[in-house]
Amino acid sequence: MKIIDSTLQPQIDSTLDVARVRADFPILKLQVEGKPLVYLDNAASSQMPQPVIDRLVRYQTSQHANINRGVHYLSETATAEYETSRRKLQHFINASEDREVIFTSGTTDSINLVMHGYGRKFIGAGDEIILTTLEHHSNIVPWQMLAEEKGARIRVVPINDAGELLIDEYEKLFNERTKFVGVMHVSNALGTINPVREMIAFAHARGVPVLVDGAQAAPHMKVDVQDLDCDFYAFSGHKMCGPTGIGILYGKAELLERMQPFKGGGDMILSVTFERTTYNSIPHKFEAGTPPIAAAIGLGAAVDYLSNVGIDAIAAYEVELLNYATEQMCQIPGVRIIGTAARKTAVLSFEVAGVHPHDVGTLLNQEGVAVRTGHHCVQPVMLRLKVPATTRASFAFYNTMAEVDTFIAGIRTVQKIFV
Amino acid sequence: MITKSLYQEVILDHNRKPRNYGKLDKASHHAVGHNPLCGDHLDIDLNLEGEHIEGIAFHGESCAICKASASMMTTVVKGKSLADAEMLIKEFRDMATGTLDLAHPHHLGRLTVFAGVRDLPTRVKCAILPWHTLHAALNSVSTTSTEAEGDPMHAPIGDA
């Protein structure tokens, strides 16, 4: 192996060739209402590039069998590919060991796993769980269910009008009863990037573990779970160019080992008699039954794809998209951006004065522009910011500046109709 | 194209200047309708005199389709008998869900401007919510939801 002084290496080109990237996504060639599709609903689900589609096809056409049990060729192949994918995900988030990476059905499933596996074992009556106002319903409801079952209490970190967490208030919520913190890395509704690294350090200094909901971060920025020092990190495949039905729970091995299983069944056991079951080691303890093997392998291909494009190049390009779209939007009278945090991903929630978000959404669809309208599964955020609902445009690295122009022109058309 | 035909001038006009918007001083019947999918809600006040709708008013937070539907509904059902109102509720719902053949005789008149929603599945409930809520008020059900089980809208309308 040749060792090269890193300072002598040429600078990696971090610019993104969006035309080349777009050619990888067959769905982007679609016409909607006779117009080219402008897909701006990436925070809900992203689109899939051809290499990932091809990987799914290759798996189904030449590698599929059930994993972990057969001694035959296909089963061994499928098992090897599934575990290879786990290691790809491990490297993608820089986990120290592959057994810390659990395949789940998605972020919601990952959070529920932590609630059942950790929460039900270690959180009891009178204990307190800290969540934030920004949380998606999926990081609220499981903890409410636990609080109700155990007699625990949920404390909520407030936000300011820009949609940023009030960190002073967060720190004030800690006391001797605080047993857990759940916080989203990036807000799905507003795009706010939360200072999770600092929040984790503060919690750890008080012996409190932290779960980070990374569903909106993993597709858009470099995630390093060792650098964050989070105890749990949850994210979904379908928001990062992978298939639906697959997600990841990263957990520190030491914690995962102490947790109780979430689902019981095959694969998660070492031995079963009617008197006693011995559980398998991690990660298998948390992967009961036949997993979505194809989806897991597809997710491995998706992180390969994202890494090839370059996650830093993606992040940098998406900031350009956000800045351009924000600038354009600020020039339209009667449009108000909801969520103006200093650190944001490429998410624009907004209101058009006098026009209900559903009408905005239906009329933008007429221009071929796909946006999300409604409460975005964050009713507490809507309540706090006093908006019943918003329209949300969420960008991905395959969107273009020209698409931003189409979107902005679409908003002006909506305003004309509603004059 | 479909969308354009839905957002036509009569609907936009009723959205801008909703008729019978507000509350009745003395309502004999009242209902609140919710669409939990979007958070929209609509209050309907009714004044029934015998078998007739003497007064009707609505207010609430909703999209243009819903508000215009409510506004036009109030102008149409005011003065109508309960039986006629229930018939219109049924016909409107059938039109919005695409089960009414507009080529056959019906009583919807200019309410057919809403026929386009049948092609927008996510917007059907916006158009129906006011009718849904009127049905609840007429049947002395104080709250209703487009998603609730045991909702009067889920029971046969017009046959009872």
TrEMBL record, chain A:
Enzyme nomenclature, EC number: 2.8.1.7
Pfam families in the cross-refs: Aminotran_5
Name of the top EC class for this enzyme: transferase
InterPro entries: Aminotrans_V_dom, Aminotrans_V_PyrdxlP_BS, Cys_dSase_SufS, Cysteine_dSase, PyrdxlP-dep_Trfase, PyrdxlP-dep_Trfase_major, PyrdxlP-dep_Trfase_small
GO molecular function, one term: cysteine desulfurase activity
Superkingdom of origin organism: Bacteria
Catalytic activity: (sulfur carrier)-H + L-cysteine = (sulfur carrier)-SH + L-alanine
GO biological process, alphabetically ordered: cysteine metabolic process
Protein name: Cysteine desulfurase
TrEMBL record, chain B:
Alphabetized CDD domains for the sequence: IscU_like
Residues annotated as transmembrane: none
A Pfam family that the UniProt record links to this protein: NifU_N
Classification via InterPro entries: NIF_FeS_clus_asmbl_NifU_N
Domain NIF system FeS cluster assembly NifU N-terminal: 7-126
BP GO terms, sorted: iron-sulfur cluster assembly
GO molecular-function term, one example from the UniProt record: iron ion binding
Domain of life: Bacteria
Similarity comment text for this entry: Belongs to the NifU family.
Name of the molecule in the record: Nitrogen fixation NifU-like protein
Species the sequence originates in: Nitrosospira multiformis
